[in-house]
């Protein structure tokens, strides 16, 4: 449960692990045994009190997280017992969920984690950003930051499938190596120098004069460095700015925005919620790519079950994860809190 | 003639006024008596040596400027003597111009200055920015900076014709009053406070919660203030950043670009050169508006003819002009340099 709104880096005392009774579902609800939950950067924003693009999580309630689970009791005809569902009531082992907030997953033969990753929010975010916002085409030179992250690792692979040349930035040599494994033509660890210099070197190595697309997951110096080398009619898809999520005072923005005029470039922010009409098209395309082996799932499983989820969240913020950061829960979680019999158990308060 | 590349604010010694013989046109050329020339902010960039979006003006040659003149001698069948033409060889009273670089103006019953203003670069820039980039629609709340300038004063009027609510920023009380005369619902002098506060007050006065469109002619604090109050799916058309043209070191950019993500907003730079296909549509629409009296030409005529053109350019950069800044030349110029008989006269060097 969220107990306090974090200032700067979140602390363990901002949340509390509690035992509660999870009873039978009321009419129109189902009970779900959660199998795996997601931890994502945007959660940091929703823990804060300032309204950003989503409602803050209320104090004194369990937080939300995209979660895949199996329905164990149902009081709604549309979501039967045994169904594999995606819902938002994570950060707990068992959840009572309105049936209207459950989505029975398509392609339920794929591993549960795929529904949080490639077929979930980060996968669809990558796809919308690449296809609808940046509109990556054959021959484009594409720069992707946070390229070993859940979104970035998918963008790298989509861009290669689309016939682009891909330059990747990541936060360690291991992550840069992963980006190369996923198909990036060049990948660097941004700790190895100024991003501007690393990017110029990378462009020289691929024989390109500039960028047609920058897929921005971090903001800050990456964004300024990218703007410095955009080609005419470049597209910058603003997906995230993890570099500033923990900043307590505003950081100055790029000093070279005038290049957006000289290069007639477009910079556009986007959120998945505006593109839900594309879900069917996206799922069909992505599931095909996964089954073909054309796109590889990349994820990090944090151990400890629900008791370990907070550390998993902090680890994800600190960049220790590659690909989608997930926490197996319940019978899938190594350190299950209370085990299956916590269901219907008396609260120890 | 350009003699030196300006550092910071341009100086009189950066240019030199010289007398030269203008002879008969070679084959494929015409001789034009210039009637009126334009001074524009982008010229500052082309005087500098750094490649921006246009070639620098060469040192030791006359600079270029959009100019309207009457053909006085022709060695090309396509451009006859007597034609009113638009060309780039301004900063001089008579010019030899390749016929291929002359455009015979449509709507030549309108005053010559209109072909440099509403029907010229600034008018078409305003129209492209409003119609193709910002896509202003009925009901939009539109913020325009430099609203008494050549582009801004036209955007204000187009936005009102499209049914938008218009908030205008200008550089003096007189200019703000002009913007209100042109139809702006609210107009402020940005010297009267912080732009952020002035803009918030303006929004409150028109009963709006935020901006759907910001048409940016200045960059800097105006851009940051506008981003602070954008609505979902806002469009920011980047047209110019006059606030930084004279800066010798880069100024920090807006610190709140992350709002482009939260608000799913688009920020896009543009240059007229990519939209020349629209000229016919634009001219027909704008000429109709002018003849209907729906859009009013706004311009400042600087005196002194070609000898006064440099001071006119500096005055325009300093913001002393309202609307399109022009310099009448030759028989139209008050202080004609050498008069008509400078044609074919020996150079006094």
Give a structural overview:
Two copies of one chain form a homodimer. Chain A has helices at 42-47, 121-133, 150-161, 173-181, 195-206, 220-228, 259-262, 279-292, 305-317, and strands at 29-38, 67-74, 84-87, 94-98, 103-104, 141-144, 165-170, 186-189, 211-216, 230-238, 266-269, 299-301, 324-328. The first copy, chain A, contains nine helices and 13 strands. The two termini of chain A are 14 Å apart. In chain A, strands 1, 2, 3, 4, 5, 12 and 13 form a seven-stranded mixed sheet that branches. In chain A, helix 2 packs across helix 8 and helix 5 (195-206) crosses helix 6. Helices cover 26% and strands 20% of the residues of chain A. Chain A has two domains: 12-117 and 297-342, Alpha-Beta Complex (Quinone Oxidoreductase, Chain A, domain 1), CATH 3.90.180; 129-292, Rossmann fold, CATH 3.40.50.720. At the A-B interface, helix 7 and strand 11 of A face helix 7 and strand 11 of B.
Q: Which shape of chain A, going by the Cα principal axes?
A: globular
Q: Using the coordinates shown, work out and report the CATH topology of the largest domain in chain A.
A: Rossmann fold
> What is the element string of chain A, with H for helices and E for strands?
EHEEEEHEHEHEHEHEHEHEHE
Radius of gyration of chain A over alpha carbons? 21 Å
How many helical stretches of chain A?
Answer: 9
**CATH H-tier superfamily of the largest domain in chain A:** NAD(P)-binding Rossmann-like Domain
Unreliable spans of chain A are 334-349
InterPro entries (chains A, B): ADH-like_C (IPR013149), ADH_N_2 (IPR041694), ER (IPR020843), GroES-like_sf (IPR011032), MDR_fam (IPR045010), NAD(P)-bd_dom_sf (IPR036291)
Protein name (chains A, B): NADP-dependent oxidoreductase
Organism (chains A, B): Rhodococcus zopfii
Keywords (chains A, B): Oxidoreductase
């Amino acid at each position: 449960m969220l107990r306090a709104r974090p200032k700067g880096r979140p602390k363990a005392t901002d949340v509390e692990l509690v035992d509660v009774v999870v009873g039978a579902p009321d009419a129109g609800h189902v009970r779900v045994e959660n199998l795996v939950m997601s931890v994502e950067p945007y959660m940091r924003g929703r823990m804060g009190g300032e309204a950003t693009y989503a409602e803050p999580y209320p104090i004194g309630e369990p937080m939300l997280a995209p979660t895949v689970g199996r329905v164990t009791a149902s009081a709604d005809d549309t979501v039967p017992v045994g169904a594999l569902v995606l819902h938002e009531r994570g950060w707990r082992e068992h959840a009572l969920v309105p049936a209207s907030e459950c989505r029975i997953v398509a392609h339920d033969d794929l591993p549960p984690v795929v529904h949080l990753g490639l077929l979930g929010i980060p996968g669809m975010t990558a796809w919308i950003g690449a296809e609808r916002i940046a509109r990556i085409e054959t021959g484009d030179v594409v720069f992707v930051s946070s390229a070993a992250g859940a979104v970035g690792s998918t963008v790298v692979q989509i861009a290669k499938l689309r016939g682009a040349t891909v330059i990747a930035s990541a936060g360690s040599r291991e992550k840069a190596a992963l980006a190369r494994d996923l198909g990036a033509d060049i990948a660097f660890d941004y700790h190895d120098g100024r991003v501007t210099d690393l990017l110029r070197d990378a462009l020289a190595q691929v024989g390109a004069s500039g960028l047609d697309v920058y897929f921005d997951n971090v903001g800050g110096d990456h964004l300024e460095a990218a703007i410095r080398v955009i080609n005419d009619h470049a597209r910058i898809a603003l997906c995230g700015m993890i570099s500033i999520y923990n900043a307590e005072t505003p950081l100055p923005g790029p000093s070279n925005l005038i290049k957006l005029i000289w290069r007639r470039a477009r910079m556009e922010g986007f959120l998945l919620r505006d593109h839900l009409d594309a879900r069917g098209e996206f799922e069909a395309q992505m599931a095909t790519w996964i089954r073909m082996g054309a796109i590889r799932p990349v994820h990090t499983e944090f151990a400890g079950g629900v008791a370990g989820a907070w550390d998993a969240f902090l680890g994800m913020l600190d960049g220790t994860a590659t690909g989608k950061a997930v926490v197996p829960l319940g019978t899938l979680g190594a350190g299950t809190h209370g085990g299956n019999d916590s269901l219907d158990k008396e609260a120890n308060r």
